[in-house]
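Ticket reopened. Same input as before:
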Amino acid sequence: MAEKKKKLTRRKFLIGTGAVVGGGLVLGYAALPNQMKDIAARHKGEGQILSGWIKITPDNKVTVIVPHAEMGQGTHTALPMMAAEELDADWDLVQMEEAPGLPEFANQPLGEGFIVGDSLPDILAPLINKAFYSIAQAMDLQITGGSTSVRFTGQYGMRVAGAAAREMLMKAAAEEWDVSVSDLSTEKSFVHHKASGRSASYGSLAEAASSFDPSPTPTLKPKAAHTIVGTRTIKRFDIPGKVNGSAKYGIDAEVDGMLYAAIARVPVHGGTITSIEDSAALAMPGVRKVCNLGYAYAVVADKYWRARTALDAVEIAFDAGGNELVDSDAIFARFSEDLATHELEYDIDEGDVDGAEGRLVEADYAVPYLAHACMEPMNCTAWVRDGVCDIWTGTQAPLMARTAAAVAAGLEPEKVTVHNHMLGGGFGRRIHAENDYVAPAVEIAKMAGAPVKTIWTREEDMRFDEYRPAVVSRFAAKLGEDGKPVAWKNRFSDKREPAEAPLIPYGVVNQSIGYVRSQSHLKLGPWRSVDHSQHAFFTESFVDELAHEAGADPLEYRLSMLADAPRHAHVLKTAAEKAGWYAGVRDGRAMGIAVHESFGTIVAHAAEVSIGDDGMPRVHKVTCAVDCGEAINPDNIESQIESAIIYGMTGAFFGEITVQDGQVVEGNFPEYEMVRLADVPEIEVYIIESGAPMGGIGEPGLPPTAPAITNAVYALTGQRVRKLPLRNYDFSASA
Amino acid sequence: MKYSLKVNGEIRDVDVEPDTPLLWVLRDELGFKGVKFGCGVAACGACTVHMDGTATRTCIYPVEAAEDIDITTIEGLADEGMYTDVQQAWIDEQVPQCGYCQSGMIMAVSALLEENSAPTDQDIDDAITNVCRCGSYPRIRKAIRKVISERGAA
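Engineering reply: fixed in the latest deploy. New output:
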């Protein structure tokens, strides 16, 4: 019998490597007073910085400094809501500003939060492993990713900072009026002393309050007392600027004397330029320079269109690095071969899957590479001069962008200033895992000796993305007499993050989940929900296959195996009931269901599907139940779930990056199609506040989307979709 | 080459190559950064403006063909500090997420509602083919419906 060897979780990894685990959930905040001096110095004369990220000015305005990037997920509003709630601030007097890309604004609570360990920001782990960051350095990653902002920075930073600031303001009032703090109350940015009828605004008390030390363990409000968090009255700060064209994205940056660059990589990933013919380009109007970066070339000109036009006049010869013959078929063949021949690593290996007795059911699944296709193509403006470097861009990780810029400029990180902007889409693309867009822009600017804005074409952005990995996943299950699996064996061809993505919530005694690490020459990176995006499709499709094999209702079958996962069961039941699972659907339609946990949040979707005249599935309605523990901004949760479903639908229906002659084929939207308005189903979202530790919300709506749809397609057509995307199928025989 | 363009009610002179897409002229020569570059092949609609009232994708529209046309960008849709009913509906329904596509969306929707005051869902599907990668579509449809019903009630 196989030895039991459940793999380490990242928590064990982190603690096991010697991180000091401190004394509680407010560690991140407790560490702040030292940083406060830096922050206070920087903001001198602009009002009093109280605890953490909260600034109060004499006009009684509260500014919450948010150490995360806004990419549409609503964090620039949700975090101030959490701080303002505990502060008892008047929401109409609350504003926000994004923290500069400096270590003192780094996500300390985020780093501390996952060492304390009630959940894990998985996005960090590959970076830590890869770059040998120490735990301390990991805390300096001012990163926006892994659905972490609200549940770490918000929970352990903003809430505590708000409550501590409120206590400091009350102490100031108590001293001023010579009364006891316990006789004071606060409401809407005022401190009141009911007995004497005295009141003072936070703005008038802020200076006196700043002489007190913030408590690391202030009293937080009970949920019943919330007037901001959990309500539907709050409008997002970033929206007005996004309806009148005034919101500033990286691509909108303007620097005096700025030039423009257009860039093209060597068409075969990993290839190197061996010679470059640039005389024709250099003779074109406005062209200042042609840069050879080795892995790419760029034309710098006084106008973008001149640079872009001249780029076509540059000719290169290149060494393809041995990848010139690679194509998609060869890549998938290699995954299968490596799966058969390479030694496995295990996520879980419990019981005896091979020795268990039962009816064998096997199936092979696969998903392709996926591009992020952020609406704003990659871009970065850089200026290297006099021993310093400035960059203007939109990034999910300003400190990592700073490091990338520093290396490219040949400077110390302290000499680099990051001017972060709104992100025209992030989804993991703007985290700089591998194929960084900051470094080339800095190299180009350095060569040009001027500020340069480098803009990637859509084709360059798509053909040189950091893709969601292509993966093959094989299953073998054994069903007992009652039709339930007694053994669950899963082997797959690549592993990134989060570690738990392939795990199932179902009670199966014998389980073996193992993998090899097989990839092509394409660069990979986190893609909205990371490994969850493929594993939910694999596991929730295969469990659906088992239900049909057992002749059971797919919902009842799942529920019967969730005795030890009551939150999953409740979420599944809620989605099914709200969708009318038991009532059934009209003729020509079918419903599919799927449930998956990611980033601490459990989501179930019930998808109602028919087959259109074109032979493609048509999704009419998706009913979603989501248990994220606690809801901070319910309207924004719904918006993020809608977003994740549609992002997941694009992947399920159209998403496929293919390789030919070592080059990525798809370059723009006509080939890499997107879900558009006409394709969008009715979406209903039911939020369950179970009181469990808060989960993330930007990503968890995505993973169950594809299997809910393909399970419905199976129920309708009898055809099991085992390889995405759907557009490669024709279901017209079932229409 | 010199061209004279009429943008948001003002005559503006520019000196660029004739094949320069109007997108880059509006953004970099004239400073209308609300007009966004998304795909460069008129497949996503992020660069949509009004040309004589018609929603037009400017990333493939050569500047040489843009003279003598009334061009309106997102910046010129409402007076400074004001919102049109379409923009206000976008705020009320909390439509934008990353927001990058929304200038183009709002321009496309505004043009549609000028041409057809009571579009059906099918009309909306046919006319609004812009890409929103964040998937704000359910709220876009809600906001359009809101404007239609408010205009009908007025």
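Chain B touches chain A through 58 residues (CB under 8 Å). Chain B has two domains: 2-76, 85-153. Please confirm and we'll close it.
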